Amino acid sequence: MIRKGSVTWEGSGKDGKGAMSTQSGVLKGNQYGYSSRFEDGLGTNPEELVAAAHAGCYSMKLSFILKAKNFISEHIETTCSITLEDGKITLSYLEVTAKVPGISMEEFQACAIEAKDTCPISLSLTCEKTLKATLV
Length: 136
Known about the structure:
With 136 residues, the chain is of the alpha+beta class. Helix content is 35%, strand content 35%. It contains four helices and six strands; from the N terminus they run βββααββααβ. The protein has a three-stranded antiparallel β-sheet. A three-stranded mixed β-sheet has the order 4-5-6, covered by helices on one side. A hairpin with a 2-residue loop joins strand 4 and strand 5 (88-99).
């Protein structure tokens, strides 16, 4: 399986501007630049996209792990915060809240940690990965 994303960039680093697109069309010429990456400017940025990818990958992996242990999740909500320091992603912090009938807190925590450690995005990130998992 191969998935594609593309970017056009014009100008220098701080003064330039770019546009990001994805194969699926979810992003189609979405703007990004210095202000959207390092300030509060309009547009997206690579770290935001990594955060969304990690949250999405993690949530799906958690649902597969739960199913393999005969639990069906009714709801999984994950937020990921990416920390960029000195030009390097240093931390990916996952916060998950899930409703999983019949599971104990201990079983849920074990599944949540397994998903953090084994989802494809986690495996591709070299930074520290931390997790807060809440069962409701």
